[in-house]
Amino acid sequence: MRHFKTFTFIILSIFLGQAQTNSDALSFKMNTAYNNHLLRDIHQQYSERKDELAEALKSKKTLLAYRDNCIKSYKEIFGDFPEKSTLNEKVVGITQFNGFRIEKIIFESVPKRYVTANLYIPDGKGPFPVSLELCGHGAGGKIPASRAAILLATNNIAVLVVDPIGQGERIQFVDENSKSQTRGATTEHTLLNMGANLIGTSVAAYEYWDNHRALDYLETRADIDKNKMGVYGSSGGGTQTAYMLGLDERIKVATVCSYFTQRERVFDVYGASDGCQHIPYEGKKHLEIADFVLMMAPKPVLIMSGKYDFVDYWGATQAFKELKTAYSVLGQPENVNMLSVESGHGMPKPKREALASWLKKYFYQDNTPVLENALASIPFDALKCTETGQVITSIPDNVSIPKYHLQVWESLKKDRNAFFKNDETIIKNKVLELLGLEIPKEQIDIQQTGESNLRKFDLRKYQINRNGQMPVPCLVLIPENANPKSNVVLYLNESGKDEILSNESLIDDYINQGTILVLADLRGFGETADPINLNDSKYWNWEYRDAMASMHIGKPIMGQRVIDIMTILDFIEQTPELEKRHINLIANGLYGPTAIHATFLDKRIAHAEITRSVKSFKDYLETPIQKDIYTNVLYGVAKYYDLKDLINKTKNRAVFMD
């Protein structure tokens, strides 16, 4: 019986050959190959940045020029600032405690974007020095009460604790009962950031503007010393702090906790962080985390790190060496320091004491160490600013971030229409710029990696190499009945070419017509798909770390895949059995936007049929809680065109089939 089963299997393998054929075409197996490819660009960019910094450190003059250039580069990628409007600030409650009081504050950072905050004010007349506390990624934001703020308030330093977007009372995705619809702040920030990137900004930019306006509010108060303002934050709050330092000159002193390290190490060791912790093109502009802190030099800044933090400690020590050297060149080495504690993430008591001592030293010229004793217990009601605990369900005219994105999209319609009145060359160059690519000039190298003679067709495997690009694996199925008039169909399947090769009925439909099939996996799909376990599910994207790394280096993942299609088209042109034939493109799922861009840019594609694809970037803004958006994000694309605009420009060469 066993021999009969074996014989049956062999017979079936002969007649159902394609279903049993391994579809792998690459000459190697490495499931992190694509990420490693991206890391080479990251390392190269930061190697160049290291050389630039080394030159800058040769004198005070060159270092100040380096600092100012960092600020300039930062502003170039940051996006436009909103116009300042009336804050419409309100104090909605005050609670007195021993030695200080807490005021509950609501203001508008832009019209109808309400910011909730708690102001911890020492007893007395003032005016008091003040610091912003920027919250880490806890869902509660400013709630529970900040121990650091209490400690500072009892040492005569006022603190304004600001709820970031997506946290505390400013969660954007809530149900009618004010309950969050996502798993937490990091998920919400990342989903919101995708939409923000499409319109040319970021959650980091929103957070900065809220915090900038918080300082504007503090300047309106007689009990606050507007000449003594600082900022500190831990974790996600450390990110906000770092992003704020180079843009607001009112900040006189700062502390960055449980965030400071080397961005290069972050990508190398852990992969991309939360959406609010990245601004597109940082790597392209050679901006390291240390550069954001250096932007405020030589003002005083304290770095606080835990030796067992998931924020890479080695990277923190190396980045701090750069800061210390820079401050020494500027003649004020005492203005930068690093505290390392035997702890993990966050701001435990030793860090809080160091923070308070640091601010007290620079605000009051008092070097007496601050010691933390028992702190007041703060009830929830002393902190909550809104009736329901959420702005969205408490303030009827509040404009949520998703709604704001849609408003911006609609307001940019006239710009998109005007853009497509330009000359074809101008349009094409802008598309290439947004994709982060240049038309590849390097010659391809075709490597055949296998061949099989199957029922009705020959199967050939190829690895197509192009210097500086990922190898493209593809299969070519040449029917027995192929003739000089046979078309070539390039088939891009979201689930990989293996799934198509295993689909007998689909393959037969093409083969029986004499159509030559080219099945390919563009980078990050199929053979080079990133391991799912290396992409945290909280980011809602199966290739999050590669998509974010691509945006970081200034080469969006969609643009890289357009290059892959051009590489395949070059391969078809240079392969005798395929050349000089009509080329149709079939693409589905996440491949859709890539196929549209490739068809617009490369007229060698005679016709493209697209199914199961997003049809407009607006779809991502209308339904922000969906997976895999980052795969198809282009920074600022909403200002120029939509997918439908490109389809129209192909003159019906590209069509949606559903």
Outline the fold blueprint:
Elements: H1 2-15, H2 17-20, H3 33-56, H4 60-78, E1 90-97, E2 100-110, E3 113-122, E4 128-134, H5 147-153, E5 158-162, H6 185-198, H7 203-219, E6 224-234, H8 236-245, E7 251-257, H9 263-270, H10 289-294, E8 301-306, H11 313-329, E9 336-341, H12 349-364, H13 391-394, H14 401-411, H15 413-419, H16 424-435, E10 444-454, E11 457-466, E12 472-479, E13 488-492, H17 497-501, H18 504-512, E14 516-520, H19 544-552, H20 557-574, E15 583-588, H21 592-601, E16 607-611, H22 617-622, H23 643-649, E17 654-656
Parallel strand pairs: 4-5, 4-6, 6-7, 7-8, 8-9, 13-14, 13-15, 15-16, 16-17
Antiparallel strand pairs: 1-2, 2-3, 3-5, 10-11, 11-12, 12-14
Helix pairs in contact: 3-4, 3-19, 5-12, 7-8, 20-21, 21-23
